[in-house]
């Protein structure tokens, strides 16, 4: 019998008459197999989602998935899931795309699992589909034909990469892909979700992967509503002497025994009292002077003595106790006051030293030196204190969060002078990059462009530095494009063209006119903010790189957002200004089509917006791809010109793309013709079609050796 032993008593974890093991796996209620052998008992499980099947009294399955362990105290189910593979040889390509249907009830545990991709020049995607919503995460690893830096036992991003599981992941599919033209082309790539510690990477796995399936952990809960909504309703699962727990749970709730009780809280009889006096789990001085009560115990002293009977308080004869109390009470009060005062002074000094440590650790003295040596201090970055930013953000109240990104969380705040600002709490930065971080703060604070979000200053008194920006009130360009209300009420082409021109002007300024050229490295519609007048503001320089004046490219680890990443940058790791140009080309395609840059809900050939957009140009189907409500007889020629410009930005080779300065000039020229149509010498239809076809063909070639790996998957 399956038991929980925390005292001399034993508690069954399953319903009467129900099978409580299958092979070596224990089956606690609310899980169960079929019906009870007792006719009046009914089924052995709480809900249909907890029904299990035992084959040959050896193998346990849940919804067709092998089960290796059930933990009802932690609310976890250990199962085995298949590994996704993508293999190529000289004759063909084979792939296996496993999925795990959690029946909309269980979640992939984000604390207990990791998502991994194993293989050179490969990447994996983990998709979650639930309640008609889909979202994905990815993991990318490139070896460039060099295995010398790959280490056993670590997923550093070369040969093996791993990422955390996001919350609320259900009904998953796992996909593995390979980059074409790889030196490792005749090998397999693998992607999988695995329990922490259950897989240990070895370089030999790049040639022969030893697993077809690996363990992962599912988080389970009962019902679909939280504790507050479920209490008092029929079917409430938490029985006698138990409490409801929905903290850090994606869906529903779990039950646990109250302190001082043990057993299975889902069983009809609930949890049983622990007799602390018998188990010895008590603080009484004398074993015989312990009295058990429901959920706890009491200690008492022998007859003729007073006290609480515990090892801390002890027992004393009554006259001795009175003398001790009278003689020492005054001294205790004085001692307590003195110790408290010394402790408060110590804590205050400790806090000051800690702030000074973080200030120095985060480059505060370097920043001060640079600010003092500058001649023009009117544009200097302001150094804020931790106290100022805590007050401005109401101690970083979660209700004031206005954005989250790969480099930190952004809060809305109000400074004492009533300025509304955006406070970005950054993630921990590399200590070896402190001087570069300070240089970027100084330089970004000098940028004074109407289409770049202004950096006001920073706070360096905390373990992770915070940056303070001007507040931009009207959301992101992504929201503007995707919001249904905007699609109906603000389809004006003129607005979108102006936003594109302003964004191009800002990026041109960063590339060409700033004191040091700056490559943004993460240009996308979510990093372009809009104010109340829909004026564009380029933001989020967490991934940006300063370019030395004597260089045109930088070797760096690939970083950015799938769907916007420059294919040449992904292959060569050489970051140039033309990498921003490619990403801007995707933004132009978004403004024209209203589609997302990457959407796995779309047909296979249209998953990548860049490839689909260029395919439409090549097939002379541009106007079929334009978002409904934008196109009219007056702006056809302007839309064609912008489409040609987008195609030029999306060319595979960076040297063939225009510079941001050229792009900004062309967009301004298109706007001028829009405002002064009498100056426009309109292209005839045949000529414009020829330019569209040439612009797309220069990028989209069916014989081209490079693609993003979507075809054939």
Automatic annotation (TrEMBL):
Start and end residues of each Protein kinase domain: 396-679
Membrane-spanning intervals of the chain: 324-346
Main subcellular localisation: membrane
Protein's UniProt keywords contain Calcium: no
One Pfam match: EGF_CA
One of the GO biological process terms: cell surface receptor signaling pathway
Binding site residues for ATP: 425
Places the protein is found: Membrane
Highest taxon of the lineage: Eukaryota
Substrates-to-products reaction catalysed: L-seryl-[protein] + ATP = O-phospho-L-seryl-[protein] + ADP + H(+); L-threonyl-[protein] + ATP = O-phospho-L-threonyl-[protein] + ADP + H(+)
GO molecular function, one term: ATP binding
SMART domains reported for this sequence: EGF (SM00181), EGF_CA (SM00179), S_TKc (SM00220)
Gene Ontology terms: cellular component: plasma membrane
UniProt keyword Nucleus, yes or no: no
Signal peptide: none
Membrane topology label: Single-pass type I membrane protein
CDD domains assigned: EGF_CA, STKc_IRAK
Domain EGF-like positions: 273-311
Keyword field: ATP-binding, Disulfide bond, EGF-like domain, Glycoprotein, Kinase, Membrane, Nucleotide-binding, Phosphoprotein, Receptor, Repeat, Serine/threonine-protein kinase, Signal, Transferase, Transmembrane, Transmembrane helix
The protein's role, per its UniProt record: Serine/threonine-protein kinase that may function as a signaling receptor of extracellular matrix component. Binding to pectin may have significance in the control of cell expansion, morphogenesis and development.
Protein name: Wall-associated receptor kinase-like protein
Protein's gene: 25482293
């Amino acid at each position: 019998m399956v038991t929980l032993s925390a005292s001399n008593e034993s508690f069954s974890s399953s319903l009467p008459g129900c099978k409580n093991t299958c092979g070596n796996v224990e089956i606690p209620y609310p899980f169960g197999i079929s019906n009870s052998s007792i006719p009046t008992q009914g089924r052995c499980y709480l809900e249909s989602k907890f029904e299990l099947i035992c084959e040959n009294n050896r193998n346990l399955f849940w919804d067709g998935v092998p089960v290796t362990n059930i933990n009802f105290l932690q609310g976890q189910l250990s199962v085995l899931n298949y590994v996704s593979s993508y293999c190529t040889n000289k004759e063909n390509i084979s792939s296996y795309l496993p999925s795990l249907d959690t029946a909309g009830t269980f979640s992939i545990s984000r604390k207990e699992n990791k998502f991994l991709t194993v293989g050179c020049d490969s990447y994996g995607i983990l998709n979650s589909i639930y309640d008609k919503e889909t979202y994905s995460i990815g993991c990318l690893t490139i070896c460039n034909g060099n295995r010398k830096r790959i280490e056993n036992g670590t997923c550093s991003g070369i040969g093996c990469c791993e990422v955390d599981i996001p919350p609320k992941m259900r009904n998953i599919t796992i996909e593995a892909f390979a980059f074409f033209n790889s030196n490792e082309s005749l090998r397999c790539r693998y992607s999988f979700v695995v329990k922490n510690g259950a897989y240990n990477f070895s370089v030999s796995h790049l040639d022969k992967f030893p697993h077809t399936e690996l363990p992962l952990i599912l988080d389970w809960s009962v019902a679909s509503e939280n504790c507050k909504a479920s209490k008092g309703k029929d079917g409430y699962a938490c029985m006698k002497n138990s409490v409801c727990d929905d903290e850090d749970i994606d869906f529903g709730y779990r039950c646990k025994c109250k302190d001082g009780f043990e057993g299975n809280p889902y069983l009809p009889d609930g949890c049983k009292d622990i007799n602390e006096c018998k188990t010895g789990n008590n603080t009484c001085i004398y074993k015989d002077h312990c009295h058990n009560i429901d959920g706890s115990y009491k200690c008492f002293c022998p007859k003729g003595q007073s006290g609480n009977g515990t090892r801390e308080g002890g027992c004393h004869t009554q006259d001795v106790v009175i003398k001790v109390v009278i003689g020492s009470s005054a001294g205790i009060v004085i001692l307590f006051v003195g110790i408290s005062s010394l402790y408060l002074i110590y804590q205050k000094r400790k806090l000051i030293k800690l702030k000074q440590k973080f200030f120095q650790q985060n480059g505060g003295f370097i920043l001060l030196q640079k600010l003092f040596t500058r001649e023009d201090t009117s544009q200097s970055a302001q150094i804020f204190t931790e106290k100022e930013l805590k007050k401005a953000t109401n101690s970083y109240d979660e209700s004031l969060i206005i954005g989250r990104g790969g480099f930190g969380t952004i809060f809305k705040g109000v400074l004492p002078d009533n300025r509304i600002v955006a406070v970005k709490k950054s993630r921990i930065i590399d200590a070896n990059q402190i001087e570069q971080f300070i240089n970027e703060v100084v330089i970004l604070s000098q940028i004074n462009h109407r289409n770049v979000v202004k950096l006001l200053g920073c706070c360096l008194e905390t373990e992770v530095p915070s940056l303070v920006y001007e507040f931009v009130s009207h959301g992101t360009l992504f929201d503007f494009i995707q919001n249904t209300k905007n699609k109906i009420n603000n389809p004006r082409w003129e607005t979108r063209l102006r936003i594109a021109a302003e964004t191009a002007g800002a990026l041109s300024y960063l590339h060409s006119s700033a004191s040091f050229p700056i490559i943004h490295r993460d240009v996308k519609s979510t990093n372009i903010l809009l104010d109340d007048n829909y004026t564009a503001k380029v933001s989020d320089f967490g991934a940006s790189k300063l370019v030395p004046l004597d260089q045109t490219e930088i070797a760096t680890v690939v970083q950015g957002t799938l769907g916007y990443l420059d294919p040449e940058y992904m292959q060569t790791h050489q970051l140039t200004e033309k990498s921003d140009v490619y990403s801007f080309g995707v933004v132009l395609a978004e403004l024209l089509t209203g589609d997302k840059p990457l959407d796995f809900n779309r047909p296979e050939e249209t998953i990548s917006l860049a490839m689909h957009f260029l395919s439409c140009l090549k097939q002379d189907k541009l106007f079929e791809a334009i978002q409904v409500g934008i196109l009219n007889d007056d702006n056809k020629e302007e839309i064609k010109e912008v489409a040609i410009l987008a195609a030029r930005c999306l060319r595979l080779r960076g040297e063939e793309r225009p510079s941001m300065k050229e792009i900004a000039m062309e967009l301004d020229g298109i706007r001028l013709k829009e405002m002064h149509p009498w100056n426009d010498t309109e292209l005839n239809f045949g000529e414009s079609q020829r330019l569209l076809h040439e612009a797309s063909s220069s990028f989209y070639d069916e014989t081209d050796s490079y693609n993003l790996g979507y075809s054939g998957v």
